[in-house]
Specification:
alpha+beta; 3 helices; 78 residues
Length: 78
């Protein structure tokens, strides 16, 4: 069962919208940085079309990424 406080925080985040938008933006930037670091292309929507974007054209600064490793160490989170 969820704690009332946790449910209230989540409800508030969805009501405000900005925390959710910020989390999605961070997640996208991290995923793009991982692809760029690994030399993998990504698929994006550009000018009404689906476009394959080569790793060297991904507009993310790897040094600014909040997650410097390709994949997080799951043990750190436990």
């Amino acid at each position: 069962m969820l704690k009332p406080m946790a449910t209230d925080r989540i409800s508030r985040a969805f009501a405000e919208g900005k925390p959710i938008d910020d989390a999605l933006t961070r997640g996208i930037r991290r995923a793009m940085a991982v692809h760029k670091r690994l030399g993998q292309s990504v698929v994006v929507w550009r000018d009404g079309k689906v476009v394959l974007l080569p790793a060297e054209e991904i507009p993310v600064d790897i040094e600014e990424s909040e997650n410097p490793r390709p994949y997080p160490d799951l043990q750190e989170k436990m």
